[in-house]
Amino acid sequence: MALERVPEQRPELTTLLERRWSPRAFDWQHELGSEDLGVLFEAARWAPSAGNSQPWSFIYGLRGDETHARLMPLLDEGNQRWARRASGLIVTIRQLAAGPDHDLFGADHTQFDLGQAVAHLSIEAMAIGLHVHQFSGMDRPAVAAEFGVPAHWEVTSGIAVGRIAEPEIFDEQWEIERERKPRDRRPVSEFVFAGDWNPSASSV
Amino acid sequence: MALERVPEQRPELTTLLERRWSPRAFDWQHELGSEDLGVLFEAARWAPSAGNSQPWSFIYGLRGDETHARLMPLLDEGNQRWARRASGLIVTIRQLAAGPDHDLFGADHTQFDLGQAVAHLSIEAMAIGLHVHQFSGMDRPAVAAEFGVPAHWEVTSGIAVGRIAEPEIFDEQWEIERERKPRDRRPVSEFVFAGDWNPSASSV
User: Fold this and answer.
1) Binary contact (B39, A114; C-beta < 8 A)
2) pLDDT at A108 over 70
3) Residues of B numbered 142-201 whose beta carbons fall under 8 angstroms of chain A's beta carbons: which are they?
4) Would you call B32 an interface residue with chain A, using a CB distance cutoff of 8 Å?
């Protein structure tokens, strides 16, 4: 599927990356079992981080459970519309300081590290037949308050995870078309440089 | 190899993630070809990012070329010691503003997004038989000056990439032992919560 949606000539990636994308059409019937859930967080766990600091934590809710019901209304309406069909919601949280009475970290790699942990989780999801759609649109301070996230940790992003479904599950034509829209990225020549940083003179 | 170094009972990850770690022992003889290089950056290219903003760029040098020679002295000495054996060095750079005369991005997801792009590159490296070791220890302002990185982009981290070698390539016993040290992470129960954020009451 990914290949059809990327018609240009390009090097093919390893399967898990080649097929990865962020659908909004999730299978309403699929349930996320504890074994799958365990392996997703195990993948995040083993991500690399600066000084092995592992500055991440996660809150998750599964469709139908209490945590899910507390989380869902805190998402932006546009995200609720599709994310409610996903099997699970995960809140990503990064560490800002060593403890509640400590200064903020100086060289702050925690967003970078959290991004890597989430990428590892996403790629593991592909490996067990699931897809992930990340989003930032939610009331992050409200999530922090609702779940008692302390001030030295920061609610950073959300992840919907589940089994991908056909776009026709959506009622609206624009929602169906959005799922089929070709994926698009800047060419490598615009962001990779063999010497000086210079988008107009790049060669790889 | 990874399994031997993680003796505890735990769910097994997909192969590319299970085997991933950050060695310092790289094969001095291995050369990174342009096809491999292309697929590494292609993997970074297709990473997800907030609003598909793709706020990343990269400078790379290959062992023996001019860019590599300009980069190497800007690494911390401890990193130079092992990274010089790797086949390539990559500098990761994140976008801080839309252009030189623009305000800084408000909601700054660029470190998070860059982290994901680097994770995708790292996992693609595993898929083509390479390993990656990320580091932050380098004179980042000096790298920016040396390669003309504009003020609205920020040099963020470094990546050494190459083929893994046996730890015995090192002269010093402590360097050999460092390569064999068991890997360690916090247990999932300390950072994953099914409801309120509470490391002492977690269950997954």
Assistant:
1) no
2) yes
3) 147-150, 153, 156-157, 183-186, 188, 191-199
4) no
Whether A133 has a pLDDT exceeding 90, the answer reads yes
User: Using the beta-carbon criterion (under 8 Å), do B118 and A116 form an inter-chain contact?
Assistant: yes
- In this structure, the number of other CB atoms found within 10 A of the CB of residue B148 comes to 12
> Token pair 């040098």 is at which residue?
B61
> How far is residue A30's CA from residue B101's CA, in Å, rounded to a whole number?
48
Reported residue count of chain B is 204
Q: Is the dihedral of CA A37, A39, A45, A47 positive or negative?
A: negative
Looking at this predicted complex, what is its ipTM? 0.94
Chain A residue numbers with beta carbons less than 8 Å from the beta carbon of B112 are: 111-112, 114-115, 118, 156-157
The structural domains of chain A, ordered by start, are 19-165 (3.40.109.10)
Please give the pLDDT value at position B203.
52
**pTM: predicted TM-score of the whole model, two decimal places:** 0.94
Judged by CB atoms closer than 8 Å, whether chains meet at B153 and A197 is answered as: yes
Q: Which amino acid is at A2?
A: A
Q: Check CB contact of A50 with chain B, cutoff 8 Å.
A: yes
DSSP string, chain A: -TTTT--S--PPPPHHHHS----S-B-TT----HHHHHHHHHHHHT---GGG---EEEEEEETTSHHHHHHGGGB-HHHHHHHTTSSEEEEEEEE-BSSTTSPBPSS--HHHHHHHHHHHHHHHHHHTT-EEEEE--B-HHHHHHHHT--TTEEEEEEEEEE-B--GGGSSSHHHHHHHHSPP----GGGTEESSS--GGG---
Chain pair A-B, CB pairs under 8 angstroms: 218
